[in-house]
Specification:
One of its GO terms (cellular component) is plasma membrane. This protein is mainly alpha-helical. It has helices spanning about 1-5, 30-40, 55-85, 90-105, 105-115, 130-160, 165-195, 200-225, 230-260, 265-275, 310-325, 350-355; strands at about 280-290, 295-305, 330-340. Strand 2 (about 295-305), helix 11 (about 310-325) and strand 3 (about 330-340) form a beta-alpha-beta unit.
């Protein structure tokens, strides 16, 4: 029977539709106001307190968050346009147009979520969820452009202070922009972490960056009232640095996923769950990677070499089921079975393919 198990048992069922996954890795958030601020500015791939039950539900939540965020940004820009019409401020018009431009970046994210729902094809056998990560790259580039723009404008304002007009109207519009963008940011980041979408989290941080830009305008108005015309320039440089930090942390997560990297503890969690299943005498190679907002994995488990093929398959199925339940965001897993004797897998079990693995 050992030779029958030599090739292993492959399981690739899509159990996404029926199971919730609820393990959390936890994040060291720190304490005090600095810890809370750092946690707010640092994107995470998931929030351990919330559970999404299926890939379809996760995609639906992502699409809904993108649309609601878009509606929020459009409402914010509409209010600002009203103030522009009343005040006649050209500078305020430029800020409003910038916010409208941000709303446009939501479109690629929506397209990515829609593509991710398409069934795999022979040309794209893993499906289309990677489009979500590609949209994250675009969002990171837009955040970089925002940081560059605000830093250039801050330096220019330091060299040549500009006189602000219609201060009351400008302040009102800036406060609307800051509040509207922050509301969108909080919502998108929360949903992005909940469903494991790095792109949606990045888009939330993009909204936060725009909100911080509006706060620069608020400080500029306050500085003008108090007789410090360069106040907005100084704060602009600080905000530009904060946006660069947001960019670095967002881009790090996005590019890690493009390189098939996973969160700390993910592989260990898979090993632990698989090793805890009755009939598993050891766990071999474990791999996992993100495709959009879902994880795919494969794991080698050792079972009694004297067991039947049916028994090996049953154990692999139990391992598969346990992983889907207990590893968060896991949408697909392949379980490979190795025959073990006294807990040890003989060297000759993989003799045929060993020279390929050694390369």
């Amino acid at each position: 029977m050992g030779s029958a198990h030599h090739h292993g048992t492959g399981h690739g069922h899509g159990h996404d539709a029926d199971h919730g996954h609820g393990h959390g890795h936890g994040h060291g958030r720190g304490s005090g106001w600095f810890g809370r601020l750092r946690h707010a500015l640092t994107p995470h791939s998931h929030d351990a307190t919330e559970v999404i039950e299926s890939a379809e539900e996760a995609s639906g939540a992502g699409i809904r968050a993108a649309w609601i965020g878009l509606a929020g940004m459009m409402a914010t820009a509409a209010l600002q346009l009203v103030i522009v019409a009343v005040s006649g401020s050209v500078g305020l018009l430029a800020d409003t147009v910038h916010n409208l431009g941000h709303a446009i970046t939501t479109i690629p994210l929506l397209i990515a979520f829609r593509l991710g729902r398409r069934a795999p094809t022979r040309r794209y056998p893993y499906g289309f969820r990677r489009a979500e990560d590609l949209s994250g790259v675009l969002i990171a580039l837009v955040i970089a452009a925002s940081a560059a723009l605000i830093i250039v404008e801050a330096v220019r304002a330091l060299i040549e202070p500009r006189e602000l007009t219609n201060l009351g109207w400008v302040l009102a519009a800036a406060l609307i922009g800051a509040a509207g963008n922050e509301a969108v940011a909080v919502y998108r980041i929360r949903i992005g972490r909940r469903i494991g979408s790095a792109a949606l989290v990045a888009e939330g941080h993009h909204a936060r960056a725009d909100g911080l830009t509006s706060l620069v305008v608020v400080v500029g108005v306050a500085g003008a009232w108090l007789g410090f015309p360069r106040a907005d320039a100084v704060v602009g440089l600080v905000v530009g640095a904060a946006i660069l930090w947001i960019l670095v942390t967002s881009a790090r997560t996005i590019f890690r996923r493009l390189m098939d990297g996973v969160d700390d503890g993910t592989v260990e969690a898979i090993e632990s769950v698989a090793a805890g299943v009755d009939g598993v005498h050891g766990v071999g190679r474990v791999r996992a990677r993100w495709t959009g907002h879902r994880l795919e994995a494969d794991v080698d488990v050792n079972v009694d070499g004297a067991a039947t093929v049916a028994e090996g398959h049953r154990i692999a199925e139990i391992v598969h089921h346990a992983l889907l339940h207990r590893v968060r965001h896991l949408g697909h897993v392949v379980v490979h079975v190795n025959p073990a004797y006294d807990g040890v897998v003989p060297d000759d079990v993989h003799e045929l393919t060993a020279h390929h693995a050694a390369r």
